[in-house]
Amino acid sequence: MNIQLSISIWTVICFILLMLILHFWLLKPLLQLMDKRQARIDAAKAKKEARAQMEQEQAEALLRLQKEQKAAQKKQFRQQIEAVRAENKKAIDQAREQRLEVLDTFRAETKAERAAILDKLSAHSEELAKSFADSLLKE
Fold first, then answer.
1. Which of 127, 125, 130 lies closest to 138, judged by CA?
2. Which pLDDT tens digit goes with each residue over 43-102?
3. In the structure, what pLDDT confidence band is assigned to residue 119 with cuts at 50, 70 and 90?
4. Mean pLDDT of the 7-28 span
5. CA atoms of 26 and 34, how far apart (whole Å)
6. Is the dihedral of CA 5, 11, 17, 23 positive or negative?
7. Backbone angle region of 62, left / alpha / beta, with phi > 0 → left and psi within -120 to 50 → alpha
8. What are the distances in angstroms from CA 5 to CA 14, 17, 18, 19?
9. Percent of the chain topping pLDDT 90
10. Does residue 1 have a pLDDT over 70?
């Protein structure tokens, strides 16, 4: 087997030319295409992360709003409870006052009736004593 120098040189030159042609017409466009694809992928990832971040912030804002609304409702309920308690206390105090007034009125009426009955008894006591004494004397 003989190695021919001219054919070897031409083979090397053709190989180098093929490599240069493939590099400029195939490899460069392929690398550019891959870079563009990677850039689109990175942009989509960034957009997805931004959307996720925005959704997280919205969820947190909604949660804060719900907590604030709950706190406001709780405060309102407490105020309503306090108002009802105050009304109940006022109603109980009024009922006590009315009870005392009725009791005082009843006591005064009872005292007046007692005095009237005692007056009647004292007025009739002399007659009763006379009739008792007469009935004893007759016997």
1. 130
2. 999 999 999 999 999 999 999 999 999 999 999 999 999 999 999 999 999 999 999 999
3. confident
4. 94
5. 12
6. negative
7. alpha
8. 14, 18, 20, 21
9. 78
10. no
Q: Residue 27 has what DSSP assignment? A: I
Both tokens of residue 103?
């009791």
First CA to last CA distance, the chain: 186
Residue 12: both structure tokens together = 């090397």
- In one letter, which amino acid is 54? M
Structure tokens at 105: 């009125």
Q: How far apart are CA 50 and CA 55, in angstroms?
A: 9
Q: Which two tokens stand for residue 58?
A: 């919205």
Give 112-139 as a DSSP string: HHHHHHHHHHHHHHHHHHHHHHHHHHH-
For residue 23 the two structure tokens come to 């590099």
Residue found under tokens 């190989």: 15
Give the confidence band of 122 by pLDDT, cuts at 50, 70, 90: confident
